[in-house]
Amino acid sequence: MSRGCGMCNACCTVFEIDELNKPSHSRCVHLVARPCTKSCSIYKDRPEPCRTYECPWKQGFGSSNHRPDKIGMLLQIAETNGQTVYVVYKLREEWSPKALALITRYSLRYPVVRAKKDGHALLGGPESAIRKMFAGAPQGAVDSLLSKAEGDA
Known about the structure:
The protein is an alpha+beta fold. Helices cover 25% and strands 18% of the residues. The protein contains six helices and four strands. It has a four-stranded mixed β-sheet.
């Protein structure tokens, strides 16, 4: 199932794009305000990370009403030490009720990490999966991390 971006441009805001000297969590200077699905002024010549990015929602992950700009959260699915990890990017000042419900649901099965401008915060997940994700890290550091998981970061 493939979906269209519509007016969503969350990926143009949260990701760092070295080729454009664009820092993470900042609006791309090439975004233009116009009522069309392609709001990038360099769309035909956009850099490789922009061309190859595959939004999980566009690929059919989640329900149709969970488009990132609608719920205020962009999801990336990553893998660390053989463990699937859900990385979430907060698009608004506050988490929406839908975003919080999804984070809660996702964390029942996988570690959920919030990507922030200054690093990452563990939001939750099964302890065994979190330990797998941090395999090789000092036991005390992982224990400390588990005790400080930021449920509403």
